[in-house]
Specification:
The complex is a heterodimer. Chain A is mostly beta strands. By secondary structure, chain B is mainly beta. Chain B starts with a strand and ends with a strand. Classes of the chains: A mainly beta, B mainly beta.
């Protein structure tokens, strides 16, 4: 079945630093999504990408849909303590099942 | 507009018992996913229902089952509970592309 490789698994950074994480797939996706999960909560959609090459921002977050349609990255600029959580990428091909990466656990030291 | 709602929020069962978890999708969404998340780790895909039918099933034993009702709400049943079934169970509904998660049901098996 389809699998997503998300990296890194975890990150420990200082407040104010920029963060970058990415996902790659062996399959082509039509949609890439990025979610954030706070402890004890369900994941919340941050950014959705619908076209190859698309670059979308949401405040300090920027995500891109790779040209090959097999990868995506998420950048967080000037991190703050509330950025702490688990970030998940997800890909979907048309009406196929949504596939999630294993997550990147982000820790921000004040 | 109400989001995805899950009940109960917490559930404590003893080994060998059965657990029933419920999910109400966002109004208008016909598709529901179920995920298991243990120890704040990755999302393990359990089941996908769409228009009342099971579309896909993850790599879980048959004692994990579910159904989707005509109003698109869904139920996850776990029979013969084992200690390792303790986890956060997340439901997500989707308008075809992407998914919106509920807060989850924390199942503890003792």
């Amino acid at each position: 079945g389809q699998q997503l490789n998300q990296s890194p698994q975890s990150m420990f950074i200082q407040e104010g630093e920029d963060v970058s994480m990415n996902c790659t797939s062996s399959s082509i996706f039509n949609t890439w999504l990025w979610y954030k999960q706070d402890p004890g909560e369900g994941p919340v959609l941050l950014i959705a990408l619908y076209k190859a090459g698309e670059l979308t921002s949401n405040g300090r977050l920027t995500a891109q849909f790779g040209i090959t349609r097999k990868d995506s990255f998420l950048n967080i600029s000037a991190s703050i303590p509330s950025d702490v959580g688990i970030y998940f990428c997800a890909g979907q091909g048309g009406s196929e099942k949504l596939v999630f990466g294993k997550g990147t656990k982000l820790t921000v030291n004040p | 507009e109400a989001g995805v709602t899950q009940s109960p929020t917490h559930l404590i069962k003893t080994r060998g018992q059965q657990a029933t978890l419920r999910c109400s999708p966002i109004s208008g969404h016909t598709s529901v996913y179920w995920y298991q998340q243990a120890l704040g780790l990755g999302l393990q895909f359990l089941l996908w229902y769409d228009e009342g039918e099971e579309r896909n099933r993850g790599n879980f034993p048959p004692r994990f089952s579910g159904r989707q009702f005509p109003n698109y709400s869904s139920e996850l049943n776990v029979n013969a509970l084992e200690l390792e079934d303790s986890a956060l169970y997340l439901c997500a509904s989707t308008p075809v592309v992407g998914a919106f998660f509920g807060q989850g049901t924390r199942l503890t098996v003792v």
